[in-house]
């Protein structure tokens, strides 16, 4: 998938890796052992959302951490993405990265429950929280519009248990899309979310 990005975009990903390496010494942005496979584990994993999302729709990345997947998508040309994390150090890192790489992206330091009212049509997340909590957060974010927001969650081995647990509290439709970077991973697309 990296062969489809421009040279300039690829160079920004290389700078991204350098910045993460530098900051990771003092701030735990990602697990250290994943740095050796940064392009596959973090960049490609994030880029697999590209064909699923609409560039036209406002998108929120919940619990973005070091910027995955939202910052990667913003670097790739998505300009309606908001990165949200409650960790101040990670937000400082992302703000510095935004400036350094000249990326058009909004960054908010907040818990989802305290986000200013806004209308997000798509929510993306990676290794952030279990599905039941994410569905609750989707409903919080879309509370003022009443429209059905679509959730795209990069998930791993526990997804079937998470779906079963979430179905005890929520009604929703879902589709599991196989991950291109992790044999045990899926992209879970969730629509029509409501509380039981």
UniProtKB/TrEMBL annotation:
CDD domains in the cross-refs: AdoMet_MTases
Keyword Manganese attributed: no
Gene Ontology, cellular component aspect: cytosol
Record keywords, A-Z: Cytoplasm, Methyltransferase, rRNA processing, S-adenosyl-L-methionine, Transferase
EC number: 2.1.1.170
Compartment(s): Cytoplasm
Record-linked InterPro entries: rRNA_ssu_MeTfrase_G (IPR003682), SAM-dependent_MTases_sf (IPR029063)
Function: Specifically methylates the N7 position of guanine in position 527 of 16S rRNA.
UniProt family annotation: Belongs to the methyltransferase superfamily. RNA methyltransferase RsmG family.
Name of protein: Ribosomal RNA small subunit methyltransferase G
Gene: rsmG
